[in-house]
Amino acid sequence: MEEDYRKEIDRIIGEIKCPKDFLCYKSGFDNLCKARDAGLELFLDCLEEKPEECTFSMLMGSSHMCQCPLRVYICKKLGK
Description:
Layout lengths: L2 H13 L7 H4 L8 E3 L6 E3 L10 E4 L2 E4 L2 H10 L2
Antiparallel strand pairs: 1-2, 2-4, 3-4
């Protein structure tokens, strides 16, 4: 992973509390929640089976959106 990405990820981690203790990052991005780019800057489409159980999930209309800054960054910058 490029140093710029690592620095930004470290910055994001320092600014948020994660109920899963950053499992996505600690697993080398192998254990990611299901989400896809929604074409929005700060949100992803949440594709989890029970999105209401995630503290970063937000209901918008009839869809749940992921607003986890780390997950959004991983998707948009690293394509995962």
